[in-house]
Amino acid sequence: MGSLISPQLKRLLSYTKPYSVRLVVGVILVAFVAISEALIGFMLRPAVDYVLDPVKFGSSLPLVTLPWNGQVIYLNKIFPSSIHNVWTMFAISILVLYVSKAIAEYLGMTGIQYVGLAATRDLRNEFYEKVIKQPMGFFQHNPTGRIISIAINDIDPCGLR
Question: Is residue 1 part of a domain?
């Protein structure tokens, strides 16, 4: 059975190897952003059922019920006992969730973009090094405009996305 990844893609991915740690951290942070989006969805039910309903007042704030065992996860278990107001727990939770999501999204996307641009830089440097080491006959048979066009258009960060 043949490889699922083409040789060209393998070669292209080899340029990201020196930056693999930064790439993995970026992907993990972006995955955290996706999980945060799901958590924001889970926060909707407690917001409508407990926070916005003045009739239901108490210190317990159920977040989600696990489907496989029926156990309820309470938001108030995360907070110290001194914070017992439902509004306060909910507000702090939403604030922490949005701030951590924003930081993770910024750092994750910045890290992934850095890897893409660094791989492009390495590919361009390799190309330039190869062009510079060519004999004079190469430049007589290949117009300069064509070489520059390859350097600018074919090795482009937009082409790597």
Answer: no
How high is the mean pLDDT of the chain? 84
Domain count, the chain: 1
Cα–Cα dist 142/140, whole Å:
6
Name the residue with higher pLDDT: 120 or 114.
Answer: 114
pLDDT one-digit tens code per residue, 18-53: 999 999 999 999 999 999 998 888 888 777 777 777
**Residue 2 lies inside a defined structural domain of this protein:** no
82 is a domain residue: yes
Residue 44: which CATH number? 1.20.1560.10
Predicted pLDDT at 149: 83
Token output for 24: 């993995």
C-alpha closest to that of 29 among 114, 112, 113: 112
| Domain of residue 147, residue span | 7-160
Q: Please, what is the Cα angle at 30 between 65 and 88, to 5 degrees? A: 45
Q: Is the pTM of this model over 0.85?
A: no
- Rounded-to-integer distance, Cα 43 and Cα 48, Å: 9
Q: Which residue stretches of the chain are H helix?
A: 7-14, 20-42, 44-46, 86-132, 136-141, 144-149, 157-160
